[in-house]
Amino acid sequence: MTTERVGPPLRAGERETLRAYLDFHRATLAMKCDGLSDECLRRQSMPPSTLSLLGLVRHMAEVERTWFRRVINAEDIPFVWSDNRDFQAAYDASAATRSEAFDAWQAEVEHSRRIEQAAVSLDVTGHFPNWGEDVSLRLVMLHLIHEYARHNGHADFLREGIDGTVGA
Q: Computed over its alpha carbons, how large is the radius of gyration of the chain?
C-alpha cells in the first residue's frame, strides 16, 4: 500500500490550513507504516518502552476519538483499548494486527473529519474533563497537529530501526 500525501496550501484561510496540515500529518504516519508486515509494525523501540509503529497508530485512534468525538461532539463513548481511559494502553500492540489498528484509526479519522466539517466555526467548544476547561475546535485541531508531528518524529526513528528507511 502506498499512501498519498498532499502538501498543505501555501495561501489559504485558517480552517482550510488547519485541516490540510492535520491531513498531511495523518498521511505522514500512514506513510511511515507503508510496506511493512504486522511483525515489523509491532517491533518495539527499546525496553522498557512498548512503543511501536502499530502502537502509534492505535494511540492516534484514541487521540482522534477523544478530542473530536468525546470533547467536541460530547459523545459518551469508551476508549478503544483501555477500560480506565489510559492513552498509554494503546501503545502495547504486541498482539495487534495492521488491519485491526488501521481500521480503528481510519474510522476515527473519518468521524473527526465529519465533526470538524459540520462545526459552524473553529470557535465551537467542547469540554475537556482532564483540564476541567472548555476548548475550541481550533485548539483541538492545533493539538492534534502537534500530537501527530511529535509522534511522526517517533515514527521516523522506529521506521529507520526496522529497515533503514528515512525521510518523509
A: 16
